[in-house]
Structure to design on (422 residues):
């Protein structure tokens, strides 16, 4: 009797152990099949509604490609979009709701600094990794900006300070005598101007800076600004993002015979997609800071992929290549981390690099999310259609490639804090 009881107990114990092991294995398998939840906080309407839809298309293209290939340790990327309407209050409310209800693993995609502030504050508050496929706007951190400097937001490219620095260097190399700044009346415009001023002061003030104009983001008629430029006759013009009417500005200048010899857009224009919005008449011989090398095979392949997804007459718009590459970087980070734990993800971002279509890799980022030592380019739109987009009468010509100084966000802020805006 004792033996029978012993063996019956042993069998029960063995069965319990087997069930426990099976349960653990099943739990591990289920965990491995969890999706990575990616929330797009993108302006589909409002002052940046001319930018957001292209960001969304780029993210969807990357998500589809990644899910088709598969992700090690996860079932897929599950993507959800909220329209922030380019309003910080709307973005904050919708972001909070999704964090409470949908529980994303990573979020981002804002356009203007007014709404990027919400990501900077929300990342710290919710301990949630955030991302921006555009460049780092540093002026919002400078007092009285009161935006926290933290590890929770990762940016694709370089600071707007370096966009302004590159503009100043470019105008200096060309030997221009008088340069104007016309920018949006918000953080990004101020930071670009500070960067150009920093280069100008460090290199002996090689040109005159006049006029300096900041325009409201909802403005579309620039007749006053055009009149000022026509009267002052600058040789060069640096034009960071101005908001709703930004793409029409060079056309308005040309119509009034007020176009400077050198018109340089900031990276928000970026590539031929921006030129197509402007139109051949407005874009011809316009320069822009860019995130890609138009002569590279990677760029050609990306354009072909974009056309296959969105139509032969479609073309990638501003920052779309950044967002495409950034989502692939997110995949690489999660695979390398092997977990969705936010602290581990942030830690892994600091040691992870990925590059396909952009001129500069995404990551590794510094302790404050900036992409240290990122590369950039200047391209020019010249007559003659390109083989990759034969229906438009201009093509991109690579002018130069530059590498930004390997400074993190805090080092950039230390440089900026004693320089007043233009």
């Amino acid at each position: 009797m004792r033996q029978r009881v012993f063996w019956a107990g042993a069998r029960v114990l063995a069965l319990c152990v087997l069930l426990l092991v099976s349960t653990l294995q099943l739990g591990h398998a289920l965990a491995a099949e969890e999706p990575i939840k990616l929330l797009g906080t993108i302006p589909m309407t409002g002052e940046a509604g001319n930018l957001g839809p292209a960001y969304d298309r780029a993210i969807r293209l990357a998500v589809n490609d990644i899910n088709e290939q598969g992700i090690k340790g996860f079932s897929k990327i599950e993507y959800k979009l909220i329209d922030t309407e380019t309003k910080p209050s709307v973005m904050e409310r919708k972001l909070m709701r999704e964090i409470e209800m949908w529980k994303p693993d990573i979020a981002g995609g804002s356009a203007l600094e007014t709404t990027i502030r919400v990501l900077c504050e929300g990342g710290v508050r919710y301990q949630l990794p955030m991302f921006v496929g555009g460049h780092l706007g540093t002026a919002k951190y400078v007092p009285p900006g009161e935006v926290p400097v933290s590890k929770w937001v990762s940016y694709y490219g370089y600071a707007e300070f370096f966009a302004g620095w590159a503009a100043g260097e470019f105008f200096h190399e060309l030997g221009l005598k008088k340069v104007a700044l016309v920018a949006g009346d918000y953080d990004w415009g101020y930071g670009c101007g500070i960067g150009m001023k920093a280069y100008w002061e460090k290199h002996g003030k090689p040109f005159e800076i006049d006029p300096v104009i900041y325009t409201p983001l909802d403005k579309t008629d620039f007749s006053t600004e055009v009149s000022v430029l026509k009267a002052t006759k600058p040789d060069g013009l640096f034009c960071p993002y101005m908001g709703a009417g930004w793409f029409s500005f060079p056309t308005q200048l040309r119509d009034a015979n007020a176009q400077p010899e050198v018109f340089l857009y900031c990276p928000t224009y970026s590539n031929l997609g921006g030129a197509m919005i402007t139109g051949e008449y407005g874009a011809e011989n316009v320069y822009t800071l860019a995130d890609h090398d138009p002569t590279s095979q990677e760029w050609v392949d990306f354009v072909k992929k974009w056309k296959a997804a969105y139509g032969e007459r479609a073309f990638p718009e501003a920052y779309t290549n950044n967002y495409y590459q950034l989502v692939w970087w997110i995949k690489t980070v999660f695979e390398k981390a092997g977990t969705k734990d936010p602290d581990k993800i942030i830690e892994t971002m600091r040691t992870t690099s990925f590059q396909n279509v952009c001129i500069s890799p995404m990551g590794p980022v510094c302790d404050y999310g900036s992409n240290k030592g990122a590369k950039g380019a200047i391209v020019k739109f010249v007559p003659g259609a390109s083989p990759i987009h034969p229906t438009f009468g201009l093509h991109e010509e690579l002018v130069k490639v530059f590498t930004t100084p390997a400074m993190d966000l805090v080092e950039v802020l230390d440089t900026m804090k004693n320089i007043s805006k233009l």
